[in-house]
Amino acid sequence: MKKVLQVNDLHVSFRTYGGEVKAVRGVTFDLNKGETLAIVGESGCGKSVTSQSIMRLIPNPPGRIVSGSILFKDKDLTKVSEPEMRKIRGADISMIFQDPMTALNPTITVGEQIIEGIRQHKKVTAAEAKNAAVDMLDLVGIPSPEARLKQYPHQFSGGMRQRIVIAMALVCQPEVLIADEPTTALDVTIQAQILELFRDIQEKTGVSIILITHDLGVVAQVADRIAVMYAGKIVETGSRREIFYNPQHPYTRGLLRSVPRLDIEGADLVPIGGSPPDLFSPPAGCPFAARCEYAMDVCDRVYPSETRLSSNHQVDCWLQDERAKKLMAAMN
Amino acid sequence: MNSYFVKRLISMLITLWLIITLTFFLMHAIPGSPFTSDKNTNEAVQNNLKSFYHLDEPLYVQYGAYLKSLLTLDLGPSIKQSSFTVNDLIGRGIPVSFELGFWTLLVAVVSGILLGVAAALRHNGIIDYLAMTFAVLGISVPSFVMATLLIQQFAVNWPILPVATWASPKHMILPILALATGPMAIIARLTRSSMIEVLAQDYIRTARAKGLSPVKIVFKHALRNALMPVVTLLGALAASILTGTFVIEKIFAIPGMGKYFVESINQRDYPVIMGTTVFYSVVLIIMLYLVDLAYGIIDPRIKLGKKEG
Ligand SMILES: Nc1ncnc2c1ncn2[C@@H]1O[C@H](COP(=O)(O)OP(=O)(O)OP(=O)(O)O)[C@@H](O)[C@H]1O
Ligand code: SF4
Ligand SMILES: [Mg+2]
């Protein structure tokens, strides 16, 4: 499988009046060609910061990529110049944000907002750009696209606007599409339609998608692989099957138990007790220790390194680590 | 759309009528008459003059007569400068005052916006700090003090610019600067805060995610939205510049409308007071209308006559 994007040991921090917020603390993952990778986790765990780091859209100051690398087409995106990054944004890697009601400029026609993206990256005539925009709107299911181009965002419903945002993101045929909570602001029926659209578009264009969400229902519908994030780290990665049917990290299990499931009848909904650690001074050991029912002494002291359970399942948890007992003995 | 125009026109006319009525009766409530300062005229002459200008008639009759002559766009004769009609005086003074007002507004708007944008882009940086210090000064120093400072600096200490009359573009620099500083400072502050707000909007992030350059983002995506509050303020600023011209014209001996207006008040030259007020009211009412038109052009969500979203 071809890897289109490799994120290695990414650290991102924000300098604030209260101190340095270590929002992302060593995130590593790959994105394969044509797959949908879902990043899930509670609010504040660093999903958006991770995705915006890939686009280098972290507001700086206060934010900063402290270390790590993001490899895309033999380039390290943490190192390329800003003008070079601008050529990548929207052309090779595109991004969709959560709220379609605010993501579009209210004073510019949607046509112009799509066309300017094309003309930024491709040498095409005005007419060619317009045709491309019409085709794209058609692809994302906007009826009478030609007429709709001349309208302003407020003349569209929320679901329609999200389709426009998706059209805008895909119009330059990017290799990677990052969607940060693309359906959270939409009602359930529209959500389903938009997810359907993602699948449809991936089939037609082969784009690789990073889908960020805290909705496991969404994940179950579209993800090929899932990365579970907690307190700035990815604690478990696996295929959709592995994560849903064979979760190994206590946090992943907690997440799954906290959402309603149709397949396990009568299962109780159990929210995860406690709250995530303070990211100003994250714990040295496993960040989930304070909430984990299996926590051991070693968990508090040393962060568990990654254990490969299989070729498509990795987890950071001492429960899976053969060395745990040995290490504890050595430390005592 | 048409019914909107009709409604708008009617409300403009009512506003104008209110201003005329208020000014008319307030003006006559001020003690004194056009002839009280002429010490050498005796009572009989004064009475004759009063009856010549119909000032001896009951106020409501005078008021009715004034409204009637207004309908024919006749602003009446000047009492103190008897060889001129008010229409003459306006015809001579207004071009100069307009020139002053127009350039002042242009300088204030353009430089205020640029300063505000620069400050917003360097939010909390040195440029921001300097610009805002300057803005606070500009807002708190009145134009006549600014005029004095400018004269002192550029005509006395370092005599490179003329200080009086309206003879050449060079003569216009100091009065325009003196008058423009205040509005420019206000516009700069407003542009800055509204620009900072707009730059934090989601659609700006969308624009960045498209790979647009900072210049495009600022001037195409942000500025237009950031200018809404500035446009709102434009009517009020134009009014303040108008009244400012009266003072500045006096200081720089500029032969504009201000000179006649100030004199007319001191001398109770009723037709000139009324005429100037009516004229400026019309100008301002039209300005405010243009501002409303500008809204619709800047923000497509606002359609004149019906507002949505
Ligand atoms: N501009 C900023 N300044 C300071 N801290 C920030 C900033 N942006 C993000 N953070 C911090 O980074 C951490 C991760 O935020 P992030 O937005 O990535 O969370 P998330 O996983 O996307 O959550 P959500 O599901 O709520 O979107 C949070 O603790 C947040 O406080
Ligand atoms: S490492 Fe320890 S504390 Fe962390 S999840 Fe595993 S068992 Fe729980
Ligand atoms: Mg987020």
TrEMBL record, chain A:
<dbReference type="InterPro" id="IPR003593">
    <property type="entry name" value="AAA+_ATPase"/>
</dbReference>
<dbReference type="Pfam" id="PF08352">
    <property type="entry name" value="oligo_HPY"/>
</dbReference>
<dbReference type="InterPro" id="IPR017871">
    <property type="entry name" value="ABC_transporter-like_CS"/>
</dbReference>
<keyword id="KW-0472">Membrane</keyword>
<keyword id="KW-0547">Nucleotide-binding</keyword>
<keyword id="KW-1003">Cell membrane</keyword>
<keyword id="KW-0813">Transport</keyword>
<comment type="similarity">
    <text>Belongs to the ABC transporter superfamily.</text>
</comment>
<dbReference type="InterPro" id="IPR013563">
    <property type="entry name" value="Oligopep_ABC_C"/>
</dbReference>
<dbReference type="InterPro" id="IPR050388">
    <property type="entry name" value="ABC_Ni/Peptide_Import"/>
</dbReference>
<protein>
    <submittedName>
        <fullName>Dipeptide transport system ATP-binding protein</fullName>
    </submittedName>
</protein>
<keyword id="KW-0067">ATP-binding</keyword>
<dbReference type="InterPro" id="IPR027417">
    <property type="entry name" value="P-loop_NTPase"/>
</dbReference>
<dbReference type="Pfam" id="PF00005">
    <property type="entry name" value="ABC_tran"/>
</dbReference>
<dbReference type="InterPro" id="IPR003439">
    <property type="entry name" value="ABC_transporter-like_ATP-bd"/>
</dbReference>
<dbReference type="GO" id="GO:0005524">
    <property type="term" value="F:ATP binding"/>
</dbReference>
<feature type="domain" description="ABC transporter">
    <location>
        <begin position="5"/>
        <end position="256"/>
    </location>
</feature>
From TrEMBL, chain B:
<feature type="domain" description="ABC transmembrane type-1">
    <location>
        <begin position="94"/>
        <end position="295"/>
    </location>
</feature>
<protein>
    <submittedName>
        <fullName>Dipeptide transport system permease protein</fullName>
    </submittedName>
</protein>
<dbReference type="InterPro" id="IPR045621">
    <property type="entry name" value="BPD_transp_1_N"/>
</dbReference>
<dbReference type="InterPro" id="IPR000515">
    <property type="entry name" value="MetI-like"/>
</dbReference>
<feature type="transmembrane region" description="Helical">
    <location>
        <begin position="278"/>
        <end position="298"/>
    </location>
</feature>
<feature type="transmembrane region" description="Helical">
    <location>
        <begin position="129"/>
        <end position="152"/>
    </location>
</feature>
<keyword id="KW-1003">Cell membrane</keyword>
<dbReference type="InterPro" id="IPR035906">
    <property type="entry name" value="MetI-like_sf"/>
</dbReference>
<feature type="transmembrane region" description="Helical">
    <location>
        <begin position="172"/>
        <end position="191"/>
    </location>
</feature>
<feature type="transmembrane region" description="Helical">
    <location>
        <begin position="100"/>
        <end position="122"/>
    </location>
</feature>
<keyword id="KW-0813">Transport</keyword>
<feature type="transmembrane region" description="Helical">
    <location>
        <begin position="12"/>
        <end position="30"/>
    </location>
</feature>
<keyword id="KW-0472">Membrane</keyword>
<keyword id="KW-0812">Transmembrane</keyword>
<dbReference type="Pfam" id="PF19300">
    <property type="entry name" value="BPD_transp_1_N"/>
</dbReference>
<feature type="transmembrane region" description="Helical">
    <location>
        <begin position="226"/>
        <end position="248"/>
    </location>
</feature>
<dbReference type="Pfam" id="PF00528">
    <property type="entry name" value="BPD_transp_1"/>
</dbReference>
<keyword id="KW-1133">Transmembrane helix</keyword>
<comment type="similarity">
    <text>Belongs to the binding-protein-dependent transport system permease family.</text>
</comment>
